[in-house]
Amino acid sequence: MYKRLLLALSLAAVGASLIVAAAVAGTAGTAAPAKAQSSQVTRGGTLRVNVSDTDYEYLDPALAYDSIGWATLYTVNMQLLNYPDKPAKAGGNQLVPEAATGFPVVSKDGKTYTFTVRPGLKFSDGSPITAAAFARAIVRVCHPDQGSPAVAFASNIAGCTAFNEKKGNLTGVRANGQKLTVKLIQADPTFVAQVSMPFFAAVKPTMPINPKGVDVYPSGGPYRIVSREPGRSVVLERNKFYKGNRPANPDRIVITTNTDQNQSLLQVKAGQADYDLGGIPAVQNGPLSEEFGVNKGRYFVNPLVGTGYLALNTSRPTLSNAKARQAVNYAIDRPALLRTRGKFGGQRTDQILPPSLPGYVPADLYPIKGANPTKAKQIWSKGGEINFLHTTSAASVNYAQIAKFNLEQAGFKVNLKPQPFGVAIKTMGTKGNDIDIFAIGWIADYFDPFDFINVLLDGTNIQDTNNNNYAYFNNPKYNAAMKAAAKLTGEARYKAYGKLDVDIMKNAAPWAPVFNFTSRDFIGPRVENFIFQPVYGHAILNALAIKK
């Protein structure tokens, strides 16, 4: 999600992962597991959700790639396979058939997947959902004029890369009635997880190609998008044609964007708003946990498979040299940066892969107990000017100011460049931008190291816009090693990725990893039935219910 993140630090991410149940250590202890919520809840009413300090980047499934977008798409869209509306311990991190009648039939060579779409499904306009709806989703992702960031996930579908580069046709997708057949270039054990991402949700076969995104369109999930007013609001209503078993408790969900985070917290505490997808002010996590307890009905802490990091733009003059990037890793004060996230904020790291991902191998690469500006200057004495992009939340501002102080102690000159989250994502995602460092983060889209190493650092996937390789790291040696690792399976795969993680960070350092983080959520007194979606890292909006 892009995974892209927790907006308390406006860390993007997407998105999303098969989360392990173990708690993540915070700066002031760990949280107890959440209690199960009652299934006897009320349907009806209007759920009022804020999105503080930012707006949606996109609502189009081919383009949306951040936590607030995916939280909404999870509520409105229908997938072939999807994650159920349950906490991790109850199976919320395990794929189940949704539009499909079951898991796909896979050919003996592992290269052909055949899905059967259940008959009788309908979009929110009453039109039928057939295999063509999912074929169209793949076409839109691969289309050269759509500019989808999901091309990296679809590149193994036969013809997708050639089609995207205007060198051939998309030959690997065929829809015939309720049958969808997808042919891969090579066997990939993660394909089912990839095709279950929101990018590949059902869309009408007539949904246009639009690189700016389509905001309002017929959907197949429990809710439909009624309207979007950019910079102000999004309104969802229950989909009367949805006949599935997913919860659809509120009649309407009214989402107000660009709210002030501190004011929003007061609104949620008072019941004037019910939830803030933009997160909680970092300094309030301690007081909230003391007032309401942890996982006892109002304030919740859950682990995430994700990494908060500084993306070091290797295409820019100051950080084009690996020594300069290594110096940044020595210069930053990871404990101080993590403290800006407040209580239960996460644990420090100097690696790309989170410890809970298969393949992770602990390595002592850079200081995680404090800054070492002396060592940074020994490695790189030339300094240089750095444009540092960060978002506008209070925690993000504090985070950037600490990083600026650290880097200037190591001889760099730092210019802070605050932007709202959605704007920052577009700025950094545009090739040739003037940013040297971007404070960002990543939550796994699915439980495999490919989703960190290849998705975020394979330079062959860089395009003109909508990039998520914010380091613009494009090293032929490592590109080849990433592609080789992606072809492996089992322990050999994880061993290769573990080695790549250490090798890339030790020798190329396109990132300065800072911490592995948690999700901290707070709901208002009017609502109940909080369920944390462990894959996408947010409250399940359609499950929240207005109390009787």
What does this structure look like?
It comes from Gaiella occulta. Belongs to the bacterial solute-binding protein 5 family. It is found in: Cell envelope. Residues 95-462 form the Solute-binding protein family domain. By secondary structure, this protein is an alpha+beta fold. The chain has a domain at 2-76 and 216-300 and 520-546: 3-Layer(aba) Sandwich (D-Maltodextrin-Binding Protein, domain 2), CATH 3.40.190.10. It is built from 15 helices and 23 strands. The strands form 7 sheets. A 6-stranded mixed beta sheet has the order 15-19-14-18-16-17, with helices on both faces. It has a 5-stranded mixed beta sheet with strand order 10-11-12-3-13, sandwiched between helices. The radius of gyration is 22 Å and the shape is globular.
Reconstruct the topology from this structure.
Elements (H helix, E strand, L loop, with lengths): L1 E3 L8 E2 L31 E7 L14 H10 L4 E2 L13 E2 L7 E2 L5 E5 L14 H12 L8 H4 L5 H5 L8 E4 L2 E5 L7 H5 L27 E7 L3 E6 L13 E8 L1 H10 L4 E2 L8 H8 L6 E14 L9 H10 L2 H6 L6 E3 L24 H7 L4 E7 L3 H16 L2 E7 L2 H9 L7 E7 L6 H8 L18 H11 L3 H19 L2 E12 L4 E2 L3 E2 L4 E2 L5 E2 L2
Parallel strand pairs: 3-12, 3-13, 16-17, 16-18
Antiparallel strand pairs: 1-2, 4-5, 6-7, 7-9, 8-9, 10-11, 11-12, 14-18, 14-19, 15-19, 20-23, 21-22
